[in-house]
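Thread: Newbie trying to understand structure tokens

Hi all, I'm a second-year student working on a class project, and my supervisor (Dr. K.) asked me to get a predicted structure for one chain before our next meeting. I've only ever worked with sequences, so writing a 3D structure as a token string is new to me. If someone could post the tokens and maybe explain what I'm looking at, I'd be very grateful. Here's the chain:
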Amino acid sequence: MVHNPTTPFCYFGKVPKSTKVVGLDWLYQKMDELEYSSLQAVAEACELNRGNLYRYFAFETRPSIDLLPKLCNGLHASPLEVLTALGIQFH
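---
Reply by user tm_fold:
Sure, no problem. This is what the structure looks like when written as tokens:
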């Protein structure tokens, strides 16, 4: 096969791209959706420390399972949605 430089070729062209938003991207989208003005406002709604909230969605640490109801209530999201956003995968 001869390479034709006018024909673009991508080795990853057939690999499906994940459209699942997780982590801080998910959190910031949720903030926009719920019209939270700051991370502090989200933390207050979740009754959590702002720094810890950030670390959870930056994948620096995992929250305890006891915090799941607070996260769900403050973010108006289902437990599955929150767990997925936190990078916890189900198989």
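A couple of things are worth pointing out once you decode it. DSSP finds five helices and no strands in the chain. Residues 23-85 form a domain with the 434 Repressor (Amino-terminal Domain) fold (CATH 1.10.260.40). Feel free to ask follow-ups in this thread.
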